[in-house]
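Sample intake sheet
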Amino acid sequence: MGSNPAWGAIFMDKKTFDLIELLISRLERISADSPSAHRASGIRGALLSFMDEAENNESARQISAGTIIDMGFAILESAAREKSEG
């Protein structure tokens, strides 16, 4: 995902928009007791900001959407491991 250089641009296709919405909803569901909760909140905020900037045609951020998405999925994987171990 993070390898597509166009993800950092203002343009966002429907598939990317839908993926970001799905990721945001999943990050919201991580338990506040989870060690990953704080990181999940930060990534969720970054995704929301990225979407807001894209929708309002504001300048693109330095970090690409692909990188933020990859970080979000890594946190979901970590939270899933924590849950299965605990």
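Comment: Residues 5-85 form one domain. The helical segments are 14-28, 37-55, 65-85.
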